[in-house]
Amino acid sequence: MSRPAPSPIYTLRGAGGPLNTLHFSCHGGDTPILFSGSGKGVIHIWNLNSRRAEKIVEGHSGSSVIWLSTLQSTDALISQGRDMQVCLWDLREGRNEVVDNVWTGSVGFCQCSLLETGPGNNLLAFAGQQTEEIRIIELPSKSPVCTLVPDTKLGMVMCIKLWQPDSGSRPLLLAGYEDGSLLLWDVTQRSKLSQAKAHPEPVMCLTFDTKRLRGISGSSEKKLSSWILDRQDNLQLQDCVTLVNPGVSQLCIREDGKLLASAGWDHRVRVFSWKKLRPLAVLQYHTDMVLSVAFSDHQDPKQRLLAAGSKDQRISLWSIYNEGADTG
């Protein structure tokens, strides 16, 4: 390690349940916001200036909230719960109402993936009712786009990432499955482009750098597996990162492509340089499994934060490697 590990700059308490998902919204307005979703079905909207919950909403009948995002063009919140519902919220001007919802039929833990395709238009991908299927719909119309099912048995779909290459208009989707496989799908053609066996255990999480066409995935084992897409859209396995302890809940790459953070089952957050996967810091604060990590989207790099949510019902916020740090 190049320097001693820092302490959290502050913590947020009062979520009342395990913190499954975190999502920042700091790029617009005067108030930076952090959304959190708990295992008790509650969404907290944290004001990062006052460091308090500005609003608390419940919309999943007490079922665990497993994913949160915001629709950039409308500033609407979208949430996914284990009640098999995806809810669209209007939170403007003091409102807190569900204005639309989508029934997924999935009882698993696979988080949705959202892709903005134009002003006011989005694609939403989610695990479907059948074990291996991924469904993609348009929002706000909820029109079906396609259903993707592998032609061989790979087990349950565990994690997905919908994205759009800079070079073309066709959306692509990366998916991790229960047997440890990664698949790249062409959404428009409804076809599999490539496949790789990244792990011997189920793929618990993945993240993908769309600028560098490089991704990384984690499982219950003691390693992270990195991979790239070549010019023929083939998935190619690259380096592995060996971890001290097994189990990763979530992975997140900072927007500038310099840092990777992992949420560990061993109660720790690990920070790596994304370029060389060199370990930079081990962040120790939580007393139970870390379930979620997220980097903030502050426009000013000096204000960027890393948030971690844990089964211990607390959120830690960290300011690390923001200015002039050697993260190569």
From TrEMBL:
Keyword Repeat appears in the UniProt entry: yes
Annotated SMART domains: WD40
Keyword entries, A-Z: Repeat, WD repeat
Keyword Repeat assigned: yes
Coiled-coil residue spans: none
WD repeats, residue ranges: 283-320
Pfam name, any one: WD40
Protein name: Guanine nucleotide binding protein (G protein), beta polypeptide 1-like
Gene: GNB1L
